[in-house]
């Protein structure tokens, strides 16, 4: 029974350091964003999903986070954190991180014994709907798990390390738990996948080869911060009259997607991805109060993409996260045609012509 509780919560009162023996140091992780194919929108409890979700892990859209630590100068039970984002002190991120650390002191009791300086940066615009919380929180969780292992030698096994990092990531940002794994990841209990859980994500084992080299080029329609946060958007699902039907729809699509990922049906995959993106934004528009995150150029670009697909018969499809920027999903074999189309016909409608070449990635990387 004790083992079950430990696995469920990861609470461990024994993770206390001898401060006199600890020298200052730092740990750096680069962790990617991800783009959900089956969307997670709506949660309950402590960051638990109302439906399972599956995502591509990206390669070039990432956060790089350095966690510097040293013993406290004065004995105190307070969490002590400074946060530097893109080279400048960020009070908002400091408050969020302090609250996050306070919420996980049962998992990492040593957080109260140290002072922390966190430096983080993104390779993409923050809060524009490219899951910056997923990359940022997963990088931070990985730093904390590395720090635990450095102090106590508790996470030698890579599977155990990643599972705990995914669990901790989830507590900071639900979608962050999927960024821990390469290629594709599933978060949420689903009968189709053994080992799946609402508490952490798992890797999708042995997808068809076509999906391990998939491209996700991101069209930056707007670099501006979105008007409604994802946290607030999830909360509005509680009163959405379409919510229960949506959760049932997501589970049905997840069931269908399992076979698609095995047989490499890129057309069926793309149809689900596009529909999921549109449903996500329809849920926002049907919330109370309703809100709209897509921009006029988002719709214009969608029309161009769909017309291109109709005329060329190439399997180019789009997705959207909780923002206006479009993710273009396509197999590697049509890279040249698609990127030529982006350059000539789509980039002029992006903010400052900006777009990010990305693809399914290797997952997080420890740098220091």
Lay out the secondary structure.
Layout: H1 2-9, E1 25-38, E2 43-44, E3 48-49, E4 53-71, E5 80-85, E6 88-89, H2 91-103, E7 114-122, H3 132-152, H4 158-172, E8 184-187, E9 201-203, E10 215-219, H5 230-236, H6 243-263, H7 266-285, H8 296-312, E11 317-320, E12 326-330, H9 335-346, E13 355-356, E14 365-366
Parallel strand pairs: 5-7
Antiparallel strand pairs: 1-4, 1-14, 2-3, 4-7, 4-8, 5-6, 8-9, 10-12, 10-13, 11-12
Helix pairs in contact: 3-4, 6-7
Query: CA-to-CA gap between the ends?
Result: 37 Å
What share of residues is helical? Answer: 25-40%
Radius of gyration: 21 Å
How confident is the prediction overall: mean pLDDT?
93
The coarse silhouette is globular
User: What is the count of DSSP helices, taking H or I runs of 4+ residues?
Assistant: 9
Order of H and E elements: HEEEEEEHEHHEEEHHHHEEHEE
What structural class do the secondary elements suggest?
alpha+beta
Measured by DSSP, the beta-strand proportion falls in 15-25%
**Low-pLDDT runs:** 1-7
Largest beta-sheet details: 8 strands, mixed
Number of strands: 14
